[in-house]
Amino acid sequence: MSHQGYITTPPFSQGQPGMGGYPTGFSSATSQPHYSNYSGTGPSYSVGPTGPLKPPSSPHGPAISLGYSPPSPAQFGQTNLQNGLCNPGNQMPSYAVSSPGSGQTSSFQSHGSHPQPMSQNTATPAFTQQVIGQIGNMKISGYGSSQAPSQSDPSLSGPSFQPLFQGSQLPQHLPPISSRPTQRMSAAPVAPVATRFPGGAAPPATGMNMSPAGLNPGNVGYQHGVGQPPMAGYLPQQGGIYGGQQRALQPNYPGTYPGAPATGAQLAGPQQKKLDPDSFPSPIQVIEEDKLRRSGQLYATNTRGQVPPLVTTNCVVQDQGNASPRFIRCTTYCFPSTADVAKQSQIPLAAVIKPFAVLPANETPISVVSHGETGPIRCNRCKAYMCPFMQFIEGGRRYQCGFCSCVNEVPLFYFQHLDHMGRRLDQYDKPELSLGSYEFMATLHYCKNSKPPNPPAFIFMIDVSYSSIKIGCVKLICEELKTLLDKLPRPDEAETSTIKVGFVTYNKVLHFYNLKSSLAQPQMLVVSDIGEMFVPLLDGFLVNVQESRNVINNLLDQIPEMFAETSESETVFAPVIQAGLEAMKAAECAGKLFIFHSSLPTAEAPGKLRSRDDRKLVNTDKEKVIFQTQSHCYETLAKECVANSCCVDVFLFPNQFVDVSTMGVVPLATGGILYKYNNFQIQPDGEHFLNDLRKDVQKSIGFDAIMRVRTNTGFRATEFLGSMYMSNTTNVELAAIDCDKAITVEFKHDDKLSEENGALIQCALLYTNVAGQRRLRIHNLALNCSTQHADLYKSCETDALINFFAKSAYKAILSQPLKTVREILVNQTAHILACYRKNCASPSSAGQLILPEAMKLLPVYMNCLLKSYVLLGSPDVPTDERTFQWLLVASMDVGGTQLFFYPRLIPILKMDVNSEEIPAAVRCSEERLADGGVFILANGINMFLWLGLNAQAELIQGIFNVPTFAHINTDLTSLPELDNPYSKKIRMIIDNLRSQSPYSMKLVILKQKEKSEGILKQFLVEDKGIHGGASYVDFLCYVHKEIRQLLT
Ligand SMILES: [Zn+2]
To answer: Any idea of the CA torsion for 303, 305, 309, 344, to the nearest 10 degrees?
Structure first.
């Protein structure tokens, strides 16, 4: 077992009486880990009476008809049918070849021969039937080929899966599509309205970015059933669709593509497309629509359960009683009232909490409240802090806790009269009564040993072994620290930081430095007994930067010289962390270690590691071992670091395997992070690393933190996912937490929730700020509750869902086979969408895929998650790369996972150079890369500038100051600063993208048709992956098939 942050949480059945004063019943209920809930043992999807019996008052989502374009002769004349989806030879025996207008007999006849662009108004029931027939017969390549169950698989047509409709009878129940009222695209994402995408009803000429091969006028895009009358033929079955057993897991879904050509070298031309991608929900369109509707607006948090703008939309948040979405985002803003409804929908109930999110300058900073010597006022029973959810009664003498209903006395000093509405007269004067987020001054009672905390420390620990010196990073670090030390985090009003600093260098032994301000020269003390690490000096190791400035600079000048001729190639690692920890223990302070390390620690010492890059484990039941630590020494060390508030950040400069999963254990558990720079060279990588280091050192941070999430009766936090540690079931321990770290919390019902009270969440974070003050940061959020599925589905936030799915799946692979985890994700996606279809959507043809408006991107994002290195299970991907991404995602917020799994692909060609706006992105697919274009692709970690062969000379000249494409130097990692609008604009875009990510994102320049270009392909996530993984279209078809099987 490794990675404390994820797996050491004891079973939730272990009650923690006395922890924070929870009523005993609160922690006694048993709860299963997420990944065993849905893995096949417990069906638990019986449909309760509330869902299906309630006729939908209105349809709640767009429908996609998965129509096929009639193949053109040209398409079939080619052999390069890479998609395989509709490969007539191998995959779809029933797929008869026809050409547009040929009218020849085939199952595609009526579709293929349609001479006009297909629109909803011209479609016929017969057409619907044909489409259904096609999809029913469709076999999707890449989903396990022969092992994938087909419609006729007897194992799927058992008693539990009797189709609701009997095949061909279905269309007879359907009114002609032309009779359905249609509606144009709606801007309201939460509104249950239909969306019609270009490429559907619109003639091809007006469609956007349609590829010649893929475009077909016969394609039907979004259809929808707005206003469809309930049909007699559709009677929801009592006891349900999920009433029987859950379907067996899909064998081998959707593994790698055995036959997929590894075309990593070059991006080929547009692949064959039979389905028009423009007819599928587009992340870009959803993002842009939300921006159009809500960007720049004021978002006031005064309404319970309101869904905030998307994380990609920039707006001004005004705290009016609920925490800003910058601090908390939820998977849904309307919780199901009962566990039954929650189980039926399978929508995870989770909140992604980023307690220290940075607020922009145009928003009100966090207010600080003092309740005097007695400390913050809290509920006697549940210990919740004073907040807007407390109800004052009896003329203001008492208050009822919104979380546990306990009635508490109001302390005399806090008494205030109530107005005729029962509100305190001073409600709007007190942040804790009117705001969602605020801070309390904490009293000594909240401090370790009831003593005020000492100023925190930053300790810089530099590997000075041969490889580290050779690549030049030691000199680089030392030079940078000279200026960076002036920029340590400090309180807003302070001129200087109180953070103390210390320095250690090491290879097989450790060198400590005495930097006392009275010294003329720094003194080095060597510790070679690394088995029993101790700090050889107390006075003079941790110093004030200003006081010891000269000695520090002297040291930083000397370090690169001292070790310039070193031949020592072995390093230790665990003793380095131990040394930093011991120094902080001795100084009785919290703080952070910055460890700069280059190689696998193979020297004889605690935590010695061996190279174990065994990719043979990939796709076996032992694959989880890859993500587990090889030395338990690191787990012990991590616990000790957490207990002593010692956060660890590691900067790795490896040129071979370094066992990231073991070296990442301590950063993960301590709220730290691990950076990695493969084959580091000063020239291309130096600036990238320094930018990361600058961001990391300067970011706002809290130390020695404990986070607690309280809820009102009816549900509770059951699982915590993130870069953190838990020694019991309720307290999230964070040696430190900075402004970029987010913790994802899952909730489960333990009782009913009432629609009247809603679901209340209070996150309280006790920490020490950079000024050394103990504070309590409180975030409150009220959500709605409902017994209706429709309310739940329309209040979902897909970006938050993906954050939860990613973190929980990444955790699950530590204990379960990758294949199982992938299957669970796919099945859960299908269940969520099938439940919607059954309970919320208007009845319509089974051939239509109906997606909830707020969740229409779930399939595309889920596919991106499944294709991530971690879940892909491809032996082509270096193990360290997988575990590195695993660690990165662990602490990501909603914006981070959104961008990471669906990168931003920004066309530069179209940009209006005079506008301040960032051009709208395009979908992450190869076919969007036009020959003439220049594109930037960024995912928060990586950034590429892709140059098309025929990029305009003006653009090339403007950006690079060279005459032609051939002259561009692809070794550049930053663009020349030229005084022309193209150069300014593109640099502005890059800066903007970088400013939104915790990572600096090295710029890599790629030219079309050059070998290096292949690297971009893995980021074009709507296409089939180069290392495996389905295309968006394939995945959507697959999920649709799953949904249909669940519904029959
Ligand atoms: Zn209470």
So the answer is: -170
